[in-house]
Amino acid sequence: MHYRCVKCKKTYALASNQWKCGCQGLLHLEYDKQPLDFRATAVSRRHSLWKYIDALPFDKADVWESVTLGEGGTPLVSIGPNVYAKADYYMPTLSFKDRGAVTLIAMAKKLGVERVVADSSGNAGTAIAAYAARAGIACNVFVPASTSDKKIKQIEAHGAIIHKIPGTREDTAAAAIAMVEATNLFYASHIYNPLFWEGTKTYFYEVFEELGGVMPEAFIVPVGNGTLLIGAYIAFQELLAWGLIDKLPKILAVQAERCAPILKAFARGETEVAAVENEGTLAEGIAIAAPARGAEILAAVRATGGDIIGVSEEGIAAARTSLAAQGIYVEITSAANYAGYLDYLQKYPKLAEKVVVLPLCGAGIKSN
Ligand SMILES: *Cc1c(COP(=O)(O)O)cnc(C)c1O
Ligand SMILES: [Zn+2]
User: Fold this and answer.
1) Threshold 0.90, pTM exceeds
2) Is residue 130 in a domain?
3) How far apart are CA 366 and CA 279, in angstroms?
4) Strands, sheet with 356-360, edge to edge from the N-terminal-most edge strand
5) Ligand 2 centre from 4 Cα, in Å?
6) Distance, CA 297 to ligand 1 centroid (Å)?
Protein backbone atom coordinates (compact mmCIF):
# COMPACT_ATOMS: atom_id res chain seq x y z
CA MET A 1 0.00 0.00 0.00
CA HIS A 2 1.35 3.44 -0.88
CA TYR A 3 0.43 6.98 -1.82
CA ARG A 4 0.91 7.96 -5.45
CA CYS A 5 1.27 11.48 -6.81
CA VAL A 6 -1.41 12.16 -9.43
CA LYS A 7 0.98 14.43 -11.32
CA CYS A 8 4.44 12.81 -11.49
CA LYS A 9 3.35 9.29 -10.35
CA LYS A 10 6.00 9.10 -7.64
CA THR A 11 5.06 6.78 -4.76
CA TYR A 12 5.44 7.30 -1.01
CA ALA A 13 5.12 4.84 1.86
CA LEU A 14 2.31 5.68 4.29
CA ALA A 15 4.88 5.88 7.07
CA SER A 16 6.63 8.71 5.17
CA ASN A 17 4.07 11.16 6.60
CA GLN A 18 3.86 12.80 3.18
CA TRP A 19 0.66 14.75 2.55
CA LYS A 20 1.64 16.21 -0.82
CA CYS A 21 4.28 15.29 -3.39
CA GLY A 22 7.60 17.11 -3.66
CA CYS A 23 6.34 18.29 -7.08
CA GLN A 24 3.26 19.83 -5.32
CA GLY A 25 1.03 17.15 -6.88
CA LEU A 26 -1.76 15.69 -4.73
CA LEU A 27 -1.76 12.09 -3.51
CA HIS A 28 -4.00 9.10 -4.11
CA LEU A 29 -3.87 5.72 -2.38
CA GLU A 30 -3.06 2.39 -4.04
CA TYR A 31 -3.40 -1.07 -2.52
CA ASP A 32 -4.76 -4.52 -3.27
CA LYS A 33 -8.48 -4.88 -2.71
CA GLN A 34 -10.95 -7.67 -3.35
CA PRO A 35 -14.20 -7.27 -5.29
CA LEU A 36 -17.10 -7.12 -2.83
CA ASP A 37 -19.83 -9.74 -2.75
CA PHE A 38 -22.89 -7.60 -2.12
CA ARG A 39 -25.20 -10.61 -1.65
CA ALA A 40 -23.03 -11.54 1.32
CA THR A 41 -22.69 -8.02 2.71
CA ALA A 42 -26.46 -7.50 2.39
CA VAL A 43 -27.05 -10.18 5.03
CA SER A 44 -24.00 -9.42 7.16
CA ARG A 45 -24.67 -9.01 10.86
CA ARG A 46 -21.99 -6.36 11.05
CA HIS A 47 -24.07 -3.19 10.87
CA SER A 48 -21.34 -0.75 9.96
CA LEU A 49 -19.19 0.17 6.99
CA TRP A 50 -16.66 -2.42 8.18
CA LYS A 51 -18.64 -5.17 6.50
CA TYR A 52 -16.90 -3.95 3.32
CA ILE A 53 -13.52 -4.83 4.81
CA ASP A 54 -12.43 -6.74 1.65
CA ALA A 55 -12.30 -3.44 -0.21
CA LEU A 56 -10.82 -1.36 2.61
CA PRO A 57 -7.11 -0.85 3.34
CA PHE A 58 -7.19 -2.93 6.55
CA ASP A 59 -7.08 -6.58 7.58
CA LYS A 60 -10.14 -8.41 8.88
CA ALA A 61 -8.81 -8.39 12.42
CA ASP A 62 -7.10 -5.06 12.72
CA VAL A 63 -6.77 -1.83 14.62
CA TRP A 64 -10.09 -0.51 13.25
CA GLU A 65 -11.90 -2.79 15.70
CA SER A 66 -10.83 -0.57 18.59
CA VAL A 67 -11.54 2.68 16.72
CA THR A 68 -14.98 2.08 15.18
CA LEU A 69 -18.04 3.75 16.69
CA GLY A 70 -20.42 1.69 14.55
CA GLU A 71 -20.44 4.22 11.70
CA GLY A 72 -22.20 3.39 8.44
CA GLY A 73 -25.25 1.33 7.58
CA THR A 74 -27.51 4.37 7.42
CA PRO A 75 -30.97 3.98 5.85
CA LEU A 76 -32.52 5.47 2.74
CA VAL A 77 -35.56 7.53 3.66
CA SER A 78 -38.14 8.44 1.04
CA ILE A 79 -38.63 12.21 0.83
CA GLY A 80 -40.72 12.33 -2.34
CA PRO A 81 -41.49 10.35 -5.49
CA ASN A 82 -38.28 8.55 -6.56
CA VAL A 83 -36.08 10.61 -4.26
CA TYR A 84 -34.38 9.22 -1.18
CA ALA A 85 -32.38 10.85 1.56
CA LYS A 86 -29.47 8.80 2.79
CA ALA A 87 -29.76 9.50 6.49
CA ASP A 88 -26.17 10.16 7.51
CA TYR A 89 -27.53 12.15 10.45
CA TYR A 90 -27.47 8.74 12.13
CA MET A 91 -23.67 8.79 12.14
CA PRO A 92 -21.77 9.07 15.46
CA THR A 93 -20.99 12.79 15.02
CA LEU A 94 -23.97 13.31 12.70
CA SER A 95 -22.28 13.57 9.30
CA PHE A 96 -20.68 11.49 6.55
CA LYS A 97 -17.31 12.86 7.72
CA ASP A 98 -17.31 10.00 10.24
CA ARG A 99 -16.90 7.55 7.37
CA GLY A 100 -13.64 9.17 6.33
CA ALA A 101 -12.46 10.05 9.83
CA VAL A 102 -12.62 6.44 10.99
CA THR A 103 -10.52 5.08 8.11
CA LEU A 104 -8.00 7.92 8.38
CA ILE A 105 -7.61 7.78 12.17
CA ALA A 106 -7.55 3.97 12.27
CA MET A 107 -4.65 4.06 9.82
CA ALA A 108 -2.89 6.74 11.86
CA LYS A 109 -3.19 4.47 14.87
CA LYS A 110 -1.88 1.52 12.88
CA LEU A 111 1.12 3.65 11.87
CA GLY A 112 1.81 4.42 15.53
CA VAL A 113 0.95 8.11 15.22
CA GLU A 114 0.60 9.86 18.60
CA ARG A 115 -0.66 13.29 17.54
CA VAL A 116 -2.54 14.55 14.49
CA VAL A 117 -3.24 17.99 13.08
CA ALA A 118 -6.51 18.86 11.31
CA ASP A 119 -8.22 21.97 10.01
CA SER A 120 -11.90 22.45 9.48
CA SER A 121 -14.71 24.89 9.93
CA GLY A 122 -17.06 22.26 11.21
CA ASN A 123 -17.98 18.63 10.76
CA ALA A 124 -14.56 17.33 9.68
CA GLY A 125 -12.92 18.79 12.79
CA THR A 126 -15.59 17.27 14.99
CA ALA A 127 -15.25 13.86 13.38
CA ILE A 128 -11.44 13.85 13.49
CA ALA A 129 -11.45 14.99 17.15
CA ALA A 130 -13.95 12.30 18.14
CA TYR A 131 -12.13 9.45 16.42
CA ALA A 132 -8.72 10.65 17.58
CA ALA A 133 -10.06 10.59 21.16
CA ARG A 134 -11.43 7.11 20.56
CA ALA A 135 -8.05 5.98 19.23
CA GLY A 136 -6.08 7.57 22.06
CA ILE A 137 -4.36 9.97 19.65
CA ALA A 138 -3.79 13.60 20.63
CA CYS A 139 -5.22 16.15 18.25
CA ASN A 140 -4.77 19.81 17.28
CA VAL A 141 -7.66 21.32 15.33
CA PHE A 142 -7.33 24.62 13.49
CA VAL A 143 -10.60 26.49 12.98
CA PRO A 144 -11.49 29.94 11.61
CA ALA A 145 -11.91 32.41 14.49
CA SER A 146 -15.50 32.92 13.32
CA THR A 147 -16.44 29.28 14.10
CA SER A 148 -19.40 29.07 16.49
CA ASP A 149 -18.72 28.43 20.18
CA LYS A 150 -20.97 25.37 20.10
CA LYS A 151 -18.80 23.70 17.47
CA ILE A 152 -15.61 24.63 19.30
CA LYS A 153 -16.98 23.22 22.58
CA GLN A 154 -17.80 19.95 20.88
CA ILE A 155 -14.28 19.60 19.47
CA GLU A 156 -12.75 20.53 22.84
CA ALA A 157 -14.96 18.03 24.63
CA HIS A 158 -13.05 15.31 22.79
CA GLY A 159 -9.81 16.66 24.23
CA ALA A 160 -8.51 18.38 21.11
CA ILE A 161 -6.47 21.56 21.31
CA ILE A 162 -8.19 24.35 19.36
CA HIS A 163 -6.30 26.98 17.37
CA LYS A 164 -8.56 29.88 16.33
CA ILE A 165 -7.21 31.55 13.20
CA PRO A 166 -8.36 35.01 12.09
CA GLY A 167 -9.18 35.51 8.42
CA THR A 168 -10.51 33.15 5.79
CA ARG A 169 -10.90 29.38 5.69
CA GLU A 170 -7.74 29.36 3.53
CA ASP A 171 -5.81 31.18 6.29
CA THR A 172 -6.86 28.42 8.70
CA ALA A 173 -5.56 25.74 6.32
CA ALA A 174 -2.30 27.62 5.90
CA ALA A 175 -1.81 27.76 9.67
CA ALA A 176 -2.42 24.02 10.03
CA ILE A 177 -0.02 23.28 7.20
CA ALA A 178 2.61 25.54 8.79
CA MET A 179 2.39 23.47 11.99
CA VAL A 180 2.58 20.21 10.04
CA GLU A 181 5.64 21.41 8.13
CA ALA A 182 7.37 22.68 11.27
CA THR A 183 6.75 19.55 13.34
CA ASN A 184 6.33 16.69 10.83
CA LEU A 185 3.15 15.70 12.71
CA PHE A 186 0.57 13.55 10.88
CA TYR A 187 -1.77 15.77 8.85
CA ALA A 188 -5.22 14.26 9.35
CA SER A 189 -6.63 16.22 6.43
CA HIS A 190 -9.95 15.30 4.83
CA ILE A 191 -8.77 17.24 1.78
CA TYR A 192 -5.21 16.04 1.23
CA ASN A 193 -5.17 12.55 2.73
CA PRO A 194 -6.74 9.98 0.37
CA LEU A 195 -7.39 7.61 3.28
CA PHE A 196 -10.45 9.75 3.97
CA TRP A 197 -12.16 8.65 0.73
CA GLU A 198 -11.70 5.01 1.70
CA GLY A 199 -14.45 5.75 4.18
CA THR A 200 -16.63 8.10 2.17
CA LYS A 201 -16.77 5.64 -0.75
CA THR A 202 -18.77 3.23 1.47
CA TYR A 203 -21.75 5.63 1.27
CA PHE A 204 -22.11 4.51 -2.36
CA TYR A 205 -21.60 0.82 -1.62
CA GLU A 206 -24.44 1.06 0.88
CA VAL A 207 -26.83 2.64 -1.62
CA PHE A 208 -25.95 0.04 -4.28
CA GLU A 209 -26.58 -2.73 -1.77
CA GLU A 210 -29.82 -1.27 -0.40
CA LEU A 211 -31.25 -0.79 -3.91
CA GLY A 212 -30.65 -4.49 -4.57
CA GLY A 213 -27.47 -4.29 -6.62
CA VAL A 214 -28.37 -1.38 -8.87
CA MET A 215 -27.33 2.24 -8.79
CA PRO A 216 -29.76 5.16 -8.84
CA GLU A 217 -29.81 7.32 -11.96
CA ALA A 218 -28.03 10.06 -10.08
CA PHE A 219 -26.53 11.08 -6.78
CA ILE A 220 -26.98 14.63 -5.58
CA VAL A 221 -23.62 15.43 -3.99
CA PRO A 222 -22.81 18.64 -2.08
CA VAL A 223 -19.35 19.87 -2.91
CA GLY A 224 -16.90 22.15 -1.22
CA ASN A 225 -13.64 20.23 -0.98
CA GLY A 226 -15.03 17.05 -2.52
CA THR A 227 -14.66 14.49 0.26
CA LEU A 228 -17.95 12.80 -0.60
CA LEU A 229 -17.72 13.52 -4.31
CA ILE A 230 -14.31 11.95 -4.86
CA GLY A 231 -15.41 9.02 -2.69
CA ALA A 232 -18.29 8.60 -5.14
CA TYR A 233 -15.99 8.49 -8.09
CA ILE A 234 -13.71 5.92 -6.44
CA ALA A 235 -16.67 3.67 -5.56
CA PHE A 236 -18.07 3.94 -9.11
CA GLN A 237 -14.71 2.99 -10.64
CA GLU A 238 -14.42 0.00 -8.33
CA LEU A 239 -17.93 -1.27 -9.08
CA LEU A 240 -17.22 -0.87 -12.79
CA ALA A 241 -13.91 -2.73 -12.53
CA TRP A 242 -15.63 -5.54 -10.60
CA GLY A 243 -18.26 -5.86 -13.35
CA LEU A 244 -21.11 -4.91 -11.00
CA ILE A 245 -22.27 -1.88 -13.00
CA ASP A 246 -21.86 -1.10 -16.67
CA LYS A 247 -22.29 2.65 -16.57
CA LEU A 248 -21.57 5.32 -14.01
CA PRO A 249 -24.45 6.94 -12.16
CA LYS A 250 -24.47 10.70 -12.67
CA ILE A 251 -22.94 12.98 -10.09
CA LEU A 252 -25.22 16.01 -9.80
CA ALA A 253 -23.15 18.34 -7.66
CA VAL A 254 -24.47 21.20 -5.56
CA GLN A 255 -22.67 24.37 -4.53
CA ALA A 256 -24.01 27.47 -2.82
CA GLU A 257 -24.50 30.15 -5.47
CA ARG A 258 -22.67 32.67 -3.24
CA CYS A 259 -19.50 30.55 -3.11
CA ALA A 260 -19.32 28.45 -6.26
CA PRO A 261 -15.81 28.23 -7.73
CA ILE A 262 -16.30 24.72 -9.13
CA LEU A 263 -19.60 25.59 -10.76
CA LYS A 264 -17.97 28.60 -12.37
CA ALA A 265 -15.14 26.54 -13.88
CA PHE A 266 -17.55 23.80 -14.96
CA ALA A 267 -19.86 26.24 -16.73
CA ARG A 268 -16.91 27.71 -18.62
CA GLY A 269 -15.64 24.31 -19.68
CA GLU A 270 -12.39 24.75 -17.77
CA THR A 271 -10.29 21.97 -16.28
CA GLU A 272 -8.83 23.93 -13.35
CA VAL A 273 -10.69 25.82 -10.65
CA ALA A 274 -9.83 29.45 -9.88
CA ALA A 275 -10.48 30.81 -6.37
CA VAL A 276 -13.52 33.02 -5.83
CA GLU A 277 -14.57 35.35 -3.05
CA ASN A 278 -16.90 33.73 -0.52
CA GLU A 279 -19.86 36.13 -0.48
CA GLY A 280 -21.29 34.44 2.60
CA THR A 281 -23.92 31.70 2.60
CA LEU A 282 -26.18 29.79 4.97
CA ALA A 283 -24.52 26.61 3.64
CA GLU A 284 -21.23 27.26 5.44
CA GLY A 285 -20.17 23.63 5.20
CA ILE A 286 -19.80 23.80 1.42
CA ALA A 287 -18.46 27.36 1.20
CA ILE A 288 -14.94 26.59 0.02
CA ALA A 289 -13.57 29.45 -2.07
CA ALA A 290 -10.35 27.75 -3.20
CA PRO A 291 -10.80 23.96 -3.34
CA ALA A 292 -7.46 22.15 -3.51
CA ARG A 293 -8.95 19.22 -5.46
CA GLY A 294 -10.93 21.36 -7.90
CA ALA A 295 -9.47 19.80 -11.05
CA GLU A 296 -10.16 16.26 -9.81
CA ILE A 297 -13.73 17.20 -8.91
CA LEU A 298 -14.40 18.67 -12.37
CA ALA A 299 -12.98 15.59 -14.07
CA ALA A 300 -15.07 13.23 -11.92
CA VAL A 301 -18.35 15.07 -12.56
CA ARG A 302 -17.68 15.19 -16.30
CA ALA A 303 -16.73 11.50 -16.44
CA THR A 304 -20.17 10.57 -15.10
CA GLY A 305 -22.04 12.84 -17.51
CA GLY A 306 -23.10 14.84 -14.46
CA ASP A 307 -23.66 18.50 -13.77
CA ILE A 308 -23.05 21.21 -11.17
CA ILE A 309 -25.56 23.82 -10.05
CA GLY A 310 -25.60 26.64 -7.52
CA VAL A 311 -28.45 27.00 -5.03
CA SER A 312 -29.80 30.30 -3.75
CA GLU A 313 -30.07 31.34 -0.11
CA GLU A 314 -33.88 31.40 -0.41
CA GLY A 315 -33.82 27.91 -1.89
CA ILE A 316 -31.69 26.58 0.98
CA ALA A 317 -33.93 28.10 3.64
CA ALA A 318 -37.12 26.87 1.94
CA ALA A 319 -35.70 23.35 1.52
CA ARG A 320 -34.86 23.19 5.20
CA THR A 321 -38.38 24.22 6.17
CA SER A 322 -39.84 21.69 3.79
CA LEU A 323 -37.68 18.86 5.17
CA ALA A 324 -38.61 19.82 8.73
CA ALA A 325 -42.26 19.62 7.68
CA GLN A 326 -41.54 15.98 6.80
CA GLY A 327 -40.00 15.34 10.23
CA ILE A 328 -36.34 15.85 9.32
CA TYR A 329 -34.57 18.82 10.92
CA VAL A 330 -31.11 18.97 9.31
CA GLU A 331 -28.19 21.33 9.69
CA ILE A 332 -28.62 24.13 7.22
CA THR A 333 -25.72 23.15 4.95
CA SER A 334 -27.45 19.84 4.30
CA ALA A 335 -30.69 21.54 3.24
CA ALA A 336 -28.75 22.79 0.19
CA ASN A 337 -28.82 19.21 -1.13
CA TYR A 338 -32.60 19.09 -1.21
CA ALA A 339 -32.72 22.61 -2.65
CA GLY A 340 -30.31 21.35 -5.31
CA TYR A 341 -32.56 18.40 -6.10
CA LEU A 342 -35.56 20.69 -6.56
CA ASP A 343 -33.51 22.95 -8.87
CA TYR A 344 -32.32 19.96 -10.88
CA LEU A 345 -35.97 18.91 -11.34
CA GLN A 346 -36.61 22.31 -12.92
CA LYS A 347 -33.57 21.94 -15.15
CA TYR A 348 -34.20 18.27 -16.08
CA PRO A 349 -37.95 17.55 -15.65
CA LYS A 350 -37.45 13.89 -16.65
CA LEU A 351 -35.33 13.38 -13.53
CA ALA A 352 -38.63 13.11 -11.63
CA GLU A 353 -39.11 9.64 -13.11
CA LYS A 354 -35.67 8.41 -12.04
CA VAL A 355 -34.33 7.30 -8.69
CA VAL A 356 -32.13 9.95 -7.07
CA VAL A 357 -30.31 9.82 -3.73
CA LEU A 358 -29.10 12.78 -1.67
CA PRO A 359 -27.34 12.94 1.71
CA LEU A 360 -28.80 14.56 4.80
CA CYS A 361 -26.65 15.32 7.83
CA GLY A 362 -26.60 17.08 11.12
CA ALA A 363 -28.94 18.28 13.77
CA GLY A 364 -30.97 21.40 13.11
CA ILE A 365 -30.40 22.54 16.67
CA LYS A 366 -26.67 22.82 16.06
CA SER A 367 -26.95 25.51 13.39
CA ASN A 368 -29.02 28.67 13.14
C1 LIG B 1 -18.21 18.36 4.78
C2 LIG B 1 -19.63 18.49 4.43
C3 LIG B 1 -20.04 18.85 3.14
C4 LIG B 1 -19.09 19.19 2.04
O5 LIG B 1 -18.08 18.26 1.84
P6 LIG B 1 -16.79 18.68 1.03
O7 LIG B 1 -15.76 17.74 1.44
O8 LIG B 1 -16.40 20.07 1.43
O9 LIG B 1 -17.11 18.60 -0.42
C10 LIG B 1 -21.41 18.91 2.89
N11 LIG B 1 -22.32 18.64 3.84
C12 LIG B 1 -21.95 18.29 5.08
C13 LIG B 1 -23.02 18.03 6.08
C14 LIG B 1 -20.61 18.21 5.43
O15 LIG B 1 -20.27 17.86 6.67
ZN1 LIG C 1 4.62 14.43 -7.86
Assistant:
1) yes
2) yes
3) 22
4) 76-80, 83-87, 356-360, 218-222, 250-256, 307-311
5) 8
6) 14
Are 242 and 111 found together in one domain? no
Question: What is the full per-residue pLDDT of the chain (368 aa) written as tens digits?
Answer: 999 999 999 999 999 999 999 999 999 999 999 999 999 999 999 999 999 999 999 999 999 999 999 999 999 999 999 999 999 999 999 999 999 999 999 999 999 999 999 999 789 999 999 999 999 999 999 999 988 888 899 999 999 999 999 998 889 999 999 999 999 999 999 999 999 999 999 999 999 999 999 999 999 999 999 999 999 999 999 999 999 999 999 999 999 999 999 999 999 999 999 999 999 999 999 999 999 999 999 999 999 999 999 999 999 999 999 999 999 999 999 999 999 999 999 999 999 999 999 999 988 776 65
Q: Which domain holds residue 16?
A: 1-32
Q: Which ligand is nearest to the CA of 12?
A: 2
In a domain, 48, yes or no: no
* Domain-located, residue 202: yes
* Beta strand segments in 129-283, E: 138-144, 161-165, 186-187, 218-222, 250-256
What's the CATH number where 182 sits?
3.40.50.1100
Which has the closest alpha carbon to 266: 314, 229, 320?
229
What is the best residue among 91, 121, 200, 228 to mutate for testing ligand 1's pocket, by most ligand atoms within 8 Å of CB?
A: 228
Indicate if 242 and 170 belong to the same structural domain.
no
